[in-house]
Write a structure and sequence with these properties.
The complex is a heterodimer of chains A (187) and B (652). Chain A is of the alpha/beta class and 187 residues long. Helices cover 36% and strands 20% of the residues of chain A.
Chain lengths: 187, 652
């Protein structure tokens, strides 16, 4: 064994491995969204999946952002072909139900998908407590600067984007954001 | 059903592979060589089982079986069949499966050809390949499992990434790349095998893998060129190389493999650089794994980056093990790797090869530093930076022009030592080529020092390499009275290694001319015009004839028909298009390219009015770009000449 050579090699390799180990804890694509703090883009979209009472809306109804002023809005973009959307579906549905009667409005927005596929998906996934709307031509998605699905936007009572979650959401995150936005609105 | 079959095939393959990895050292230590055929059988069985999994995946893709997680992720009913099949390598999990498949195929082929060789080298090499296979099998049942269950089954999938289903080169570039990349495992396995079996002094590992290394190198060269071509034909920016981390990842092992092809000759001829060669082979393999790690783990930001998960940690562990184990092996064997020869003179071919190795390795470290620098910056200063073209171009140009020059000097010099008269006779005439290219470049308007040097040295190298053919052919004509054609065929046939190498040089020179010309003399112009109006650039005039739209099952296409004008005559039409995929926010362009010997007319549709009343067109004139693609073909042809078995030894 040539120990000198082995030491030199180790001196080159070990820091490299440590560097990679560090690098894995970072996400180079985690670029902060410029949207939070800005006024949410208005929309008027038709309901295709009614949701369940008491959160339901009739299919074909138009949901306008303007009429939701004064409420916290949770806007979840999803699609039936999106696998990560399955992970958050039940959490979103149940958390939304638990806020029934409070000034919070959950809304699903179907992204690049057929409403038929969406309805079937909701049925297979065991229903969704809140309504979902279609977004023809993904215009609303573009206005919100969607990277992909799922993404969830939290709008405060004055209609500003307060927070954006990329990827599946968990219950703690939803409650934390929604509760603090409601507390601010109540003041 | 398909899913279970494939998943189980991978699980069984793990057991088989593990058996093979254990059987080899046990057979060696206990002297039970009867076990070896079973270890070899494990290699074949692994190939069979991974093939089952890969074919099952293709079947699941083609039948739109969305209960398989990978199919649900990349499949789509509207996607054309070809792109459905090739989406096998379109995303993380599938690409790992494809990698494992290629690796198992190489292992089976290498064992099949060499299993009769006595000694311990081949069994240990087989065990090394099985060890690498085992790692990929772990990925396939762990963080990159393509056979997950999706329930309920979605009615349709999003389809492959639009960029990956927009051009036929997507069917060619990735397989070539994997074949080249994974092929580098073979010389690595034999180098490790030689060290483990104590056969490192006999240079056999190098002789056995010579063709494998050359093939892998040729495939990797072709893959890099095909990747450049894909970027040129699909991305619509008119360029072909951007020093993106993934491009660098394919280029890094190419550099060390190229260095090895040259330094291996020094070892074969002169018995020198033996430790260095071992390091190059191990380094090349490590760079292929590093490249895969960089692109699959999401550690650096890249246009090619795959979606990520925990896979990075698996790769990190594997890299750490392979790096430390192979470096310990090299250090442990280094005492046995004394050179048997020595350098006789500075004016010799081996000196040029040494310089070539030095510059290629320096090039590799430069590119590696630039690629990893964002990571270092974030670790030390906590800032996000990106290292772009200016760094890479500034750092690499001096190296590239030097390498071009060496490419002209090397073939001209003899082994051992050259006399003064010989040097003069060999090195002076090619200066005519350098002078000619320099004048042409100056007349064409080049003023940048590196551009001028690149043209001059490429001219020098072209002259020097062509002259070797000329000298050889002339000698044959005089000695045997052969015609030029016969002389050429017999000359190359008589020494395939040598003339294959010169042919590859000529290919690289063509690529160098293409890159130098297109980056020096490229002109572009962009304008918004109405139908009937024209746009002109460096003597080329295009008239917008019409805008049109078309619905296809998987996308909608908007195109512009432009007529290439010669005065009032129409010489041809070009149709740049923009493709809108339902799952993608931004459209994917399809630029129109009109190739001629001296360059391409490259037209991209940038924007348009929905009513077709105007279109924004970018026209780029790209001098000598076709030479890059053609040069890539010549490189591969040269490698094929060298790979082809030589008949000479059996004739004699």
């Amino acid at each position: 064994m040539n120990w000198k050579r082995a030491t030199i090699a180790a001196a080159c390799v070990v820091p490299l491995i440590i560097l990679f180990g560090y690098g894995l804890t970072r996400d180079p694509k985690d670029i902060p969204s410029p949207l939070p703090g800005h006024e949410a883009s208005p929309f008027a979209l038709a309901v295709f999946a009614p949701g369940q009472p008491p959160l339901n809306r009739a299919p074909g109804d138009t949901v306008r952002l303007a009429e939701l002023k004064g409420q916290v809005v949770v806007l979840n973009f999803w699609a039936s072909w999106c696998l990560s959307c399955r992970d958050e579906h039940q959490i979103l549905s149940e958390t939304a139900k638990s806020y029934a009667g409070k000034p919070v409005h959950f809304l699903g927005v179907l992204y690049n998908d057929e409403p038929g596929n969406g309805t079937q998906w909701i049925e297979q996934m065991g229903g969704q407590s809140y309504p979902s709307v279609t977004d023809p031509g993904a215009r609303t998605a573009i206005n919100y600067g969607l990277y992909g699905v799922p993404e969830t936007y939290f709008l405060d009572a004055s209609g500003r984007i307060a927070y954006k979650a990329t990827g599946p959401v968990n219950e703690r995150l939803i409650r934390h954001v929604v509760d603090s936005l409601m507390a601010v609105a109540a003041k | 059903m398909t899913r279970l079959l494939a998943h189980d095939a991978i699980l069984v393959s793990m057991a088989v592979v593990l058996f093979g990895i254990v059987a080899v050292p046990v057979a060696m230590r206990t002297g039970r060589r009867g076990l070896l055929p079973y270890a070899f059988a494990a290699v074949y069985t692994n190939f069979f089982l991974v093939s089952v999994a890969a074919v099952a995946m293709v079947y699941a893709l083609v039948t739109h079986d969305f209960s398989v997680s990978y199919v649900a992720q990349v499949g789509g009913r509207a996607t054309p069949l070809l792109f459905t099949v090739i989406s096998l390598w379109g995303a993380l999990e599938g690409s790992i499966l494809f990698w494992a498949w290629v690796l198992s195929m190489y292992a089976a082929a290498v064992v099949w050809i060499n299993s009769r060789r006595p000694g311990n080298l081949v069994p240990y090499a087989a065990a090394t390949l099985l060890f690498v296979s085992f790692f990929f099998a772990i990925l396939l049942v762990g963080p990159a499992d393509p056979f997950g269950v999706v329930s309920p089954v979605p009615p349709d999938g999003p389809g492959p990434n639009p960029l990956l289903q927009n051009h036929i080169l997507m069917a060619i570039h990735p397989p070539l790349l994997y074949l080249g990349y994974v092929g580098m495992s073979v010389p690595f396995a034999f180098a490790v095998g030689a060290m483990l079996s104590g056969e490192v002094e006999t240079d056999d590992w190098m002789r056995i893998t010579r063709r494998w290394t050359l093939s892998a190198w040729a495939l990797l060269s072709a893959a890099i060129i095909a990747g450049m071509w894909w970027s040129y034909e699909v991305l619509g920016w008119g360029g072909y190389w951007a020093w993106d981390p993934v491009e660098n990842a394919s280029f890094l092992p190419w550099l060390t493999a190229t260095a090895f092809l040259h330094s291996a000759m020094v070892q074969e001829r002169r018995g020198m650089l033996r430790l260095w060669n071992l390091n190059l082979v191990v380094g090349t393999f490590l760079l292929t794994i590093l490249g895969t790690f960089l692109t699959r783990s999401g550690i650096v930001s890249s246009v090619h980056a795959f979606t990520t998960g925990t896979i990075g940690y698996y790769f990190l562990a594997f890299i750490a093990i392979v790096m430390l184990a192979s470096l310990a092996l090299v250090a442990g064997n280094s005492e046995r790797l004394r050179s048997t020869g020595r350098f006789d003179s500075a004016a010799s071919r081996e000196t040029v090869f040494l310089l070539n190795n030095l510059f290629l390795t320096a090039f590799m470290f430069t590119v590696l530093t630039g690629t990893l620098f964002p990571l270092v910056a974030e670790a030390i200063k906590g800032v996000k930076v990106s290292v772009g073209e200016p760094f890479f171009n500034r750092m690499s140009l001096p190296i590239v022009v030097t390498l071009l020059f060496l490419m002209g000097v090397g073939p001209a010099l003899p082994w051992k030592a050259a006399s003064k008269a010989e040097l003069k006779a060999k090195l002076v005439p090619p200066a005519a080529g350098a002078g000619l290219m320099l004048v042409i470049a100056l007349v064409a308007g080049a003023r940048n020092v590196y551009a001028l040097l690149a043209f001059a040295f490429a001219g020098y190298a072209a002259f020097a390499n062509l002259r070797e053919y000329w000298i050889g052919m002339r000698a044959r004509r005089i000695a045997h009275g052969e015609g030029w054609g016969t002389a050429l065929v017999r000359l190359v046939g008589g020494n395939r290694h040598r003339y294959g190498g010169y042919t590859a040089h000529l290919g690289v020179i063509l690529v160098a001319f293409g890159i130098a010309a297109s980056s020096t003399f490229r002109t572009e112009y962009e304008a918004t015009i109405k139908p009937g109006e024209t746009i002109s650039l460096s003597g080329h005039t295009l008239r917008l004839k019409a805008m049109w739209g078309r619905e296809e099952p998987q996308r909608s296409v908007v195109g512009a028909t432009l007529e290439v004008m010669n005065g009032s005559m129409v010489k041809g039409t070009m149709e740049p298009r923009m493709n809108f995929y339902p799952m993608s926010q931004s459209p994917v362009p399809t630029p129109a390219v009109r190739s001629r010997f001296l360059g391409d007319l490259y037209v991209n549709l940038q924007a348009f009015r929905p009513d077709g009343s105007n279109a924004t067109i970018r026209v780029i004139y790209e001098p000598l770009v076709p030479w890059i693609w053609f040069g890539g073909g010549v490189v591969v042809f040269g490698a094929l000449i060298a790979i082809f078995p030589t008949g000479r030894r059996t004739d004699a």
